[in-house]
Fold:
Amino acid sequence: MNQKASPATGTVPCSGRQYRFASRMAKTPKSFIREILKVTENPQIISFAGGLPNPGLIDVDGIARAAASVLAQDGRSALQYSTTEGYLPLRRYIADRYKKRLGLVISPDEILITNGSQQCLDLLGKVLVNPGDHVAIERPGYLGAIQAFSLYEPVFHPILLHEDGPDMAQFAHEIERHAIRFFYGVPNSQNPSGITYSEDRRREIGKLLAGRDTLVIEDDAYGELSFDGIALPSLRTFLPDQTIITGSFSKILAPGMRLGWVVAPQQVMDQLVVAKQASDLHSNYLSQRIAYEYLLHEDIDKRIEGIREAYKQQCGLMISLIEEMMPDSVTCTHPKGGMFVWMTLPEKISSMEVFERAIRDQVAVLPGTPFYVDGGGNTNLRINFSNATPEKIRAGIGRLSRVIRTLERE
Ligand code: PMP
Structure:
């Protein structure tokens, strides 16, 4: 059929054709965050809905210096195709950093550079999950992981998250009843709850899973962002050959560079390399070279220290305003790092209703529901503090508390 763009709108008129899609697409939730971000593109809106790092803390000058140096010294090679595994010096750097920060001995051969750590989740789903396989995930869980794994049609077993980590009785119950392929969790400053697992909880997870046929995917997107700089042991410490770690440069360097990595035992790595080759041959090589040049010549530790300090202030301000302005029936987590606070509303107030009213008052928050694979989150809100100035935090929490107080009275 010959379709012409309409001159008035530039859109193509609908042909009436029904397109057919793979059945896995019907089981995959649309990213609610992306939908909401469209609403919040309006600059008048104070948005606590997204998950963006503070743009003021991105070292544009340092990255520009690194980019100029790579292009001047080795441009032709940096703009060429490269290996699937990723730039070896960058993988060596990541391995050394694990040794320094967490005492983990990791070989660069166990590291694959990915297009953001989000790609790790897709690749892991691709190589580990058959339709109907059992997968355990935190409740609430990271929306991007729910979306990535859903494409591979697992049966999810959500494990309730407490202030100090997963509910171990429920975890043990699920492990006894089902052949769980892997547990996916974010032990440091979790998205969406801001919760960090205690060291005891990590040890207990190790005890529960040791020797079983269950893997752990430890998503450590926020590990470097603990406000006090304390790094708790990775689950790999307790489950050395069962733990896969995913990491990211998004929160410490720049998300637009789309650089992450996965650490996996050699057999898993071999499969991941095949899956990645099929997907995109390799991650952006220029980005990898620029990141490595940056890490070599700029003071990343000082930058991270600055990010931690700024987020600590932003988070502290947000929590004190929530406690001061919200009714007593509202509670929130007290994160030790990361970018989010998780708020719980009284039973009778729906987070969707808060979202809709708050948008009318030009403040955006994220309702809790998309973080649950089994329903739930109706009285929760995820609030991002990293991408808002103190003035916006003050004004936004003020407006939000008025919305919640009004709903409480109705
Ligand atoms: N894991 C978690 C827990 C996240 O919050 C995010 C980003 N929102 C990602 C992974 C993906 O981040 P990136 O692809 O930028 O590394």
Observations:
- Residues 1-10 have pLDDT under 50 and may be disordered.
- The domain at 60-297 is CATH 3.40.640.10 (Aspartate Aminotransferase; domain 2).
- Residues 51, 116-118, 142, 144, 186, 191, 219, 221, 248, 250, 255, 260 surround 4'-deoxy-4'-aminopyridoxal-5'-phosphate (CB under 6 Å).
- The first helix runs from residue 23 to 26.
